[in-house]
């Protein structure tokens, strides 16, 4: 299966999970010259930037382990651009990771912050 198809399926599952958990989905696949954010949601007034990673097994590690410092910096820069472009001020921002292994969803809240 193509990795982008698998990635979209993982993102669809993550969106469903977030909605069922009471999050409001603001955007999906927000792109800028800095990078891409998989999901931007709102949770009780907090803007939540979500990176989704999925794998079929943990044989070669957990999905979230593939997010390196370079990827984190790209996510942060893209999030800053998003907030500026949408003129969002005065709201808390949180960076989460949703890791999916064999249809099991693990939600890692506050995975990193703007000072990373």
- Average pLDDT, all residues: 90
Estimate percent helicity.
Answer: 25-40%
Structural class: alpha+beta
Order of helices and strands: HEEEHEE
Per DSSP, the total helix count is 2
Arrangement of strands in the largest sheet? 1-2-3-4-5
Q: Tell me the quaternary state.
A: single chain
Largest beta-sheet characterization: 5 strands, mixed
| E-strand count | 5
CATH class: Alpha Beta
Q: Looking at the structure, what is the overall shape?
A: globular
Strand content: 35-45%
Task: List the defining traits of the structure above.
UPF0102 protein PERMA_0362, globular, alpha+beta, Trna Endonuclease, Chain: A, domain 1, 116 residues, disordered N terminus, single chain, nucleic acid binding, tRNA_endonuc-like_dom_sf, 5-stranded mixed β-sheet, 2 helices, 40% strand, Restrct_endonuc-II-like
